[in-house]
Prior knowledge:
alpha/beta; Aspartate Aminotransferase, domain 1; Aspartate Aminotransferase, domain 2; three-stranded antiparallel beta sheet; 13 helices; about 40% helix; globular; binds pyridoxal-5'-phosphate
Amino acid sequence: MFSKRLDRIQPSATLAMTAKAAELRSQGIDVLNFSVGEPDFNTPQNIINAAKDAMDQGFTKYTPGSGTKELKEAICTKFKRDNNLSYSTENIVVSCGGKHALYNACQVLFEHGDEVIIFSPYWVSFPDFVSVTGAKPIFVKTKPDQQYEPDFIDLLSKINKNTKGIIINSPSNPTGGVWGDEAIQRTLDLALKNDLWVFSDECYEQLVYDMKFKSIATFSSNKDKILTFQSCSKTYAMTGWRIGYTAGSPSVIKAMSKLQGQSTSCPNSIAQHAAVEALIGEQNIIAEMVTIFKKRRDLIMNGLNNINHIICDKPKGAFYVFPDISYFLNKTYKGKLINSSNDLSMLLLNEKSIVTVSGDSFGSPDNIRFSYATSDDIINKMLERLESVLSLIK
Length: 394
Ligand code: PLP
């Protein structure tokens, strides 16, 4: 009944767990939700005020399909200020979130017969963005103890004449890993030498803790085949507003805009107006958020490492930790076998109302993802509950 295209994709595992947490909470259960992919802060007031102004001033109609000139200019200012990248408005398309931007880019660049490299563990949506175009996702191993930088032997062996693109996501969801300069340069050199499209998903660019973030496009003087994806979602706690954007060469930006014009008409006009304020207005909120997230990262990471048999490397960015839980696999809880990280994640949910996302969903069966976009109290409570349930696994 439905097109074959639909069979090539899965429902989002992270959104499924978030829905599950909401369902349990509505039943009055004291749920500890570690599955959320969004900051637990509200959108800053100056951004909310800008949205109200937009409505009061009648900025409530269709805008140009690829975004307003005003917002594109603000994005260019932001790229120069934060990333030392010089773009003009013809290099920019605004979309309904970074997810929409990445989806559109895959649609305009990839098709049946193409292969696209994705580093594993990967954000759940990358393989599906690629598969839905008819192209094939090709997974490359990474090194958990080195911020999930690429395994270059594996990477080299996976590039062939069909390889059309490579998707990089540093800081990463689900691992929180942030690649160092050498790994970025080596990957980029390889990609450009093989004439690949380089996607750099930088939606967590501002959430970096122990180093300074460098945008991947700054590593090459030739940016023609580099697409940079950023978003207001995580940086300004604006996940529901749906504003993300892409910077790239004018021809690919034009192609994405054409597709978007026929599928979405334009991103939300009010959110675009507010995004201008987000990007070039007061930026203090970011530093405050980073300080809080860094403290929480240390709290959850140290707490996890204090639990017997959990190994948690120190992620340098985003708001996720991705501990290795492989010790507990193929063991039993009250006589029931734990076969997979999915089983363990379900056990945490059913026994202790802790909501996580299993590593299986991210192509990493030895891990579980915890989002620490939540309070210190909830983190401490979760650690206690976690230790009590894991101690019963034999
Ligand atoms: N890329 C990664 C790695 C993400 O984790 C997310 C959201 O969770 C996105 C892109 C998309 O975010 P948005 O569409 O809200 O901009």
